[in-house]
Amino acid sequence: MRGTSVSSPLRPLRAVVAGAGIAGLAAANALVADGWEVEVLDRAPALPRGGTALGMWPAAMAVLDGLGVGDPVRSHAVQVRGGAILAPDGAKMGRIPATRSAHLVSRARLLETLHDALPAGTVRWSRPVEAGEHFPGADLVVAADGIHSRLRSGRWADAAARPLGTVAFRGVVPGHVDTVTETWGRGAMFGITPSSDAMVNWFACLHPDLVDPGASSPTALLRTVFASWHGSIARVLSAMADDAVDRRDLFDVHVPGRFVRGNLALVGDAAHAMAPNLGRGACESLLDVWALSRSIAADGVEAGLRRYDRMRRRRVQRIVTAARLVNRVATTQRLLPARTRAARLLLA
């Protein structure tokens, strides 16, 4: 990658990136390639080793290619095309067209690949970033510190995470599947996809009314809710272990106004965390980083930040709204026949 904004007879431009997730590590790679001096700060002690599969759509893979890590990601990924929306008995409600392809790679593999492409010592682990913190001498600050971003809370007090009203569970189990499926029932959905490393990726969303607080464990709850659903789900449920289930209430983020204030730019979940139903969160984070780095390379920091905001804000906020809608539709407890007809029409 080449840039025009970073040459200086005095010193390289300096960036501080808050967060060593996908958006933060990708931003660091893009800026380092353009000649920036970059420091990434993260409160964790090291890279996480867990996590489920992420779908890298073609536009996201193009960004990874631009960062020089596309081929390593492909070497660990499973490519899939299309999929199906199923009813709880396994009947097909609709299909995801085969023209929609993605590379599925584990979050841990993607993070490791992005981290290892950086110069040694770029990331400072066990270094939390606080609300309102300033970074003297930084020409650019990138807030990639997630859905509950401390940097965002210090500058955008009216942009707190919004509850979606659903509860998500996710994990991986040993095994193999060839296709992507989502099964929609009353107040619940269950997704199954291939993953890298000979694992099967699964995820579930439940309406809160179905989340029994008296359940002895996450697996016990899921096995109760999905007890009568089709065999592919039963096989995943039987392979689950309690210590490998991630449970969380779902939120999204809407930032009123611009994604940029001064020399601080929001990217990834800090800017637009979204419901997982469209499988676009990680991809949109990578597209943010590409737009940010290319805009600054072309126009310099100040004008480049304005261009980044114009390129990304409205587009990605529409995706946040769409993901929220699909999350509601997939876990609705009402009007199920109408939902089935709509799915068949939209995905036919």
UniProtKB/TrEMBL annotation:
Residues 15-87, 258-322 form the FAD-binding domain. Keywords: Monooxygenase, Oxidoreductase. It comes from the Bacteria. The keyword Electron transport does not apply. It holds the Pfam family FAD_binding_3. This is FAD-binding domain-containing protein. It comes from Microbacterium wangchenii.
